[in-house]
């Protein structure tokens, strides 16, 4: 198994939900965590727990994406792991989705993944190692009513990561994609912890454990894709 001790991990969307759970679990395994979000107050509290570094950044901004990697290198001298978790969504009939909302979803979910990967891949190539983990969604593999914008963004993110996987594998770089089903988080303006969600949703910690699983796979093993959904979901 791959030892995560002292591995330097960038985690985007780290202020709450899945990203927070991933950051905490990786820190518990001994990784040096760089937590990235636009929420300064929540990141500050998280960094106290992970004993890592926080970077306030918008992943959809080219300069910010490069800054995240530069700050990581300044603090730790290397990058070993990138977890692309930052994501947003809204759900409506296609004719009720406005252009600004479409752009907001694609900017975070697709452009954000693209920019962080673009910023980190040259460093991974230079060291001939590195692991990118994309947190996609089970809707990257299926469609549903009211999901045109969010689903299209996750299909696009999935295609981006699958293509990158083929481009970088010969450089010793792994790219894994995780497809969670419903997760009990603040996503889509919901408040986690309801009795109903306890029965029907994954927990953020479940997704964090999946991230740990793919990262700890032996060096010669590549876990390209991992589907994760609660027992109550019937596909």
UniProtKB/TrEMBL annotation:
It comes from the Bacteria. Gene3D superfamilies: NAD(P)-binding Rossmann-like Domain. GO terms for molecular function: oxidoreductase activity, acting on the CH-OH group of donors, NAD or NADP as acceptor. Keywords: NADP, Oxidoreductase. Belongs to the short-chain dehydrogenases/reductases (SDR) family. This is SDR family oxidoreductase. It comes from Hymenobacter montanus. The lineage of its organism: Bacteria, Pseudomonadati, Bacteroidota, Cytophagia, Cytophagales.
